[in-house]
From TrEMBL:
Signal peptide interval: 1-22
Sorted UniProt keywords: Signal
Record-annotated Periplasmic binding protein domain positions: 27-286
Entry protein name: Ribose import binding protein RbsB
Originating gene: rbsB_3
Record's GO cellular component terms: cell envelope
Stated family: Belongs to the bacterial solute-binding protein 2 family.
Molecular function as annotated in GO: carbohydrate binding
UniProt source species: Pararobbsia alpina
InterPro entries per UniProt: Peripla_BP_I, SBP_2_dom
Main location: other
Amino acid sequence: MRKFPLSILAASLVLAAGAAHAAGGEIAVIVKTSSSNYWQNVQKGATAAMADAKGYTMTFQGPATESAIADEVNMVENAVNRKVAGIVLGPSDPDALVPAVKKAWEAHIPVVIIDSVLADSGKQYYQSFLSTDNKKAGELCAQALIAKVGTTGKIAVMSYVAGAGSEIGRVGGFKDYLAAHSKLTIVGPFYSNSQMAIALNQTTDVLTSNPDLKGIFGANEPTAVGMGRALAQSGKAGKVVAVGFDGNEDLQGFIKDGTLDATAVQGSYQMGELGVKTVVSLIEKKPVKKNLDTGVVLVTKDNIDKPEAKNVLY
């Protein structure tokens, strides 16, 4: 039997140990749309996390619009077909993405879901879910509105994609809180398909047909921006209490000039950053939490320049 020097054996053991824990490959970050500032902020967080993900590369994709659900399904299926190491997914539809996520599971590709829930039938196929607690966020927006308009009168709900996981929780939480704590009448919800121009036109029509409107809620970034522009163009800014959602530069401007009374801002950067870190942990067989709340901050004119707001605005 041939004998090897101890130094060579030791080196071999180190290399073997390294190989056992070595990982790498492509991490596919696939979101609802690549055209919104919100999702671009998710991309910034994901890119930042890659600095510590040695041996990995990242791709970032999203359809042209959030309503292009079939395009997102194809992106996930293509990622599975090219055998990526892991997937971070913001699903545009809770049901439509389940079969694609199941294909990833069958191919032993770990999946981290961010932002919006996947249907219960898909829970077994992903390993971690990172999001805002959208129900609590919706309740927070309802509280802010009631604090300004009182408990009677008429308010409107400008929503985005009917049936999206985040929309169900967010608008559902908003409406349930109003029902339990006020006698406010709701006009809507109206669905913009996350298109700013559609939200602008819808809000303009709502303001015209409801001159007695006391308040209005815009439930995501493009919808809230369209809502804010409609309020400004109609001369209703500052006269109708408005609460938005998310925190891009347009919405920050609306807070500062009084068009919006408040906007609920999610940790979108954190979703991207923690999403990548979590999927890397999964690839490397490290334990992760099944559910992680990435938080929300209600931004107003009083706190917009404070660290708590600056940490989430984008």
